[in-house]
Amino acid sequence: MDNPPRLFSSTRLLSLALVACLLGQAPVLAQDVATDSGNGQAFSLGEPPARDGRVARLIAALMPRNHISAKRLDDTISERALRLYIKSLDPLKLYFLQSDIDEFEEAKLEIDNMVQNGDLGLAYEIFTRFIQRVDERVAVAMELLDSDFNFEKEESIITDPDETEYAETAEEARDRWRRQIKYAILDLKDDEAEDYIDQLRRRYSRYAKRWKQTDNDDLLEMFLTSVTTAYDPHSTYMSPGTLDDFQIQMSLNLDGIGAQLREKDGNTVVSRVIPGGAAAKHGKLKTDDIIVTVGQGEEGDMVDIVEMPLNDVVDLIRGKAGSLVRLGVKPGGVGNVEEYKITRARIELEESAARGEIIEHHLPGAEETFKIGYINLPSFYLDMDAARQEKADFRSSTRDVRRILIDFQEKGVDGLVLDLSKNGGGSLTEAINLTGLFIDRGPVVQVKNSDGSIQQYADEESGTTWDKPLVVMTSKFSASASEIFAGAIKDYGRGIVVGDPATHGKGTVQTLMDLGQQLFAHNRANYGALKVTLQQFYLPDGQSTQRKGVAADVVLPSITAKMDVAEGDLQYALEHDVVKGAKHSVYNMVPVDLLDQIRVRSEKRVTEDEEFADLLRRISSYVAQKEENSVSLQESAFVERRKELESQNKDEEEELVEQMNDGVVYRDGFYNREVMNIVHDYIDGLRDKKLDNAG
Asked: I need a surface site. Which of 205, 360, 476, 541 has the fewest CB within 10 A?
């Protein structure tokens, strides 16, 4: 079998540093001269270095040649790039005036030509104007902080930038900032923060200062990433410094808390807690939490990180194993700040490896108790160095799962649950090999290249390790390699998928192209790198996993299903499409009538279960909160809303903490119990039809 393409999983390979890099830093402009509100000195980045123009021309050539879409760098990409670049500077529409945007849009169809010619003038011009507006707004903010605010007045602030426009005048911008500051004061007052006025002064001053620390490499990365992400959200340009940091990350086991972060609207948001890491063992930090302060050790000052560049936040949080970091966290992004003390540690393979447990399960009303095997698989891992050296005992997810399955067979287990609900991906080779434990042989995934050619990657080892009933647990966080496995199991009719309506939907492959090597054939100079989406995944039947993911056969209610964390939630994500299906076997282990029966029985149990009823109430509340696009600035209404959100968070905390991989293989909560009920119905139904093995 050919070697599968190198896979950049949506979560597996996005280390903290890479996440920071891909999000970029800050941009600037020229035309107007920005002045430093603190000392009156003019701000200027000077002229773009000649090498930056060379890099821009190379990116313009490489993207159409290597991107899966084979799309030209044209006017459509140009318009998108301008919007992305402006948004990366001013995501909340607080700084630019509408007149600035109107002026910039005069060049919206020219960016493609500019990049092809190595002309970065517009990028510098826009950034310089931005610095000018930042200085103006910060000066207004400092003035407003000296004024009195009426917290009894009925007014609100729009929190969804898509629901607002840029200010038309300086007066309108001032009023918007007055409301913004009023909101920040209410937020800090409710957290019982001391000297919140001084805290806001420091925050705004730091914000302006950090933008002025932008250098030419930062600007080039931000601007060219706006161009590449106009193709798709996973194609990015890494500056020389970012590339160096990325290579260090990929070659070392760095110490830290084991969490992936992203920047959103000036906040540091937790995008994933890594199984086996310090944060997972701590048990409280979770997806969608917002980190607002960071302190070192037991007594170090808590540093305000709101509006701080993500790579600087990462530097504060990362540290030596055994050292303590204190995080000020808003659970779910709302409510009061809670302090989490986390001892940094290295992620041990043993903590994130496959682990199994046998559950004796009795379904109320059923005659028989079944032994159900449960395997928690947090990632598709492979010790590539040991495998390359052909060591006999190298670790891999397939080897570990096979060992557990053999033990289950020996102990007479009747059916299996493979939990991929927290599995963000990993090795494509492992996804293929793991599928081979459940099918005899055949194609597992198809890969389309930028030239339109299709390659098939198959399990070529005859026989199965497990031929009994199989249920795959998935969620919106199940991504990439997880989707390949779950999708292949569905296409082969080998088992059923249970969980959120669909998986994450990342069906693309990225590769890293060193630009120094592209320019000179030998890597003698660091010009950064292009991470480009060059291939797309398809399941055996020909459906892409892109955007749509893999649909569950039996859907269970969950809050994760309502979170905007899927591939389709990303701007300019590639579309779903279909290729010709590959010839493969189909097992008769998912009869349509049995699947319908399982769904009906599960829906009835869920409807009658009080804990699911409470979950549905909380889901409804979460959705209502998420759909709010404004917040009252009347103090009594603000405080009341805060109390409601805090109450909701407390209700959810125990459930969400239990979803963390903190050493417990199987948790006997209401959700997992229903999964076991489904497995029980599945085993029972297959036995009645004499279809309970894949032989």
From this structure: 360
